[in-house]
Amino acid sequence: MDIMMITYVLVLFTIYCADLGVHSVGRGSTDIWCESNKERKNISVTYRMCLNDVPVFVNVTRVKPSDSSQPHQFNTNVKQIESYGFLAEISRIDINSGWNSMSLTVEWVIYMKTDLSSCQKLYDNGYRRNGLYNIYPDEITKLEAYCDLENHGGGWTVIQRNVDRGTHFDRDWTDYITGFGNKTGSFWIGLENIRELTRNGDHELRIDMTTCNNTNITAEYSKFMVGPESDRYRLTITGFQHKQGTQCDQGARWPCGNENITKSQCENTSQDCCYFENATGADRCRHTADAMAWTNGFQFSTRDRNNKKCADTRSGGWWYTQCTFASLNGKNEPCGRGAANAYWRNWIAAGTHEGLRYTQMKIRPLRNS
To answer: For the residues of 252-290, what is the DSSP string, one character each?
Structure first.
């Protein structure tokens, strides 16, 4: 017979093909009996499936006879794919190209489309190793991104890293739109990419930093979103929710309590304030944590599109506002003093800033609690 209906068992397992944006949902094999009194070159076999969507493609990986002495050279061609099945044509290509009565085993893999719109989706699909991956924020355009899939719950897309002098951040507007640098070292992923990733307003941000004296600082925000280019990528950043390590030093000069506040009251405020015994009045209790609060609602600036005239002295593009208490895209000059350095609210009495050793910004969609 030329066409045979097959009953089979679908064995589920998972493998991934990141560059194609697909993964296999099924691999299996089916035994069929081919019988004919005439020599025919082709046989068509229909496989029944139960899938919710049409596969991206089906690959018939191997056809072999149950008897190894039988002819065993075949070509395969998947001619039709539907949600309920696929039709494959099998051709003998050995010298005796006709069909004899024989039992064949057909092996196949079914591939479905995978959501690879972010590093979080990679994590959801089983990826667990940090590194460079191709993601598709708009489901079409490929973006190479560094994914942190191992730390702090995984699923993070790294959008900025300033860790060495191999990449300079004092660049023009166009560079900041498209991105620059080495994604395994220092880089900026690009404002347009950040916009595409965060446009739904459902992303959180984590900033990891290391100070001059090797103190680790962490700042987390429950909402991080960048607006369109027409509004100069205006920043929305709210929901500060994490203490910034041991960054309670004399560099912080923003009071967060009245002059009669006690040490216990100061240190238990929602703003993560620090108490300084030697200070006077309201300066005893200082707000040292959220250096990004002053960037909320402001547009992005670069040296050639300088909204607040700050990019000239800060040596890097940022969401400046008179000018800012955080400037992570400044020069990588660990322990250096000056506004051109990458710094995090290290304002000291002399009016200078202390350069950070390391900064990294990473985002991911908010997870359901």
So the answer is: ---B-S-TT--HHHHHTSTT-EEE-TTS-GGGGEEE-S-
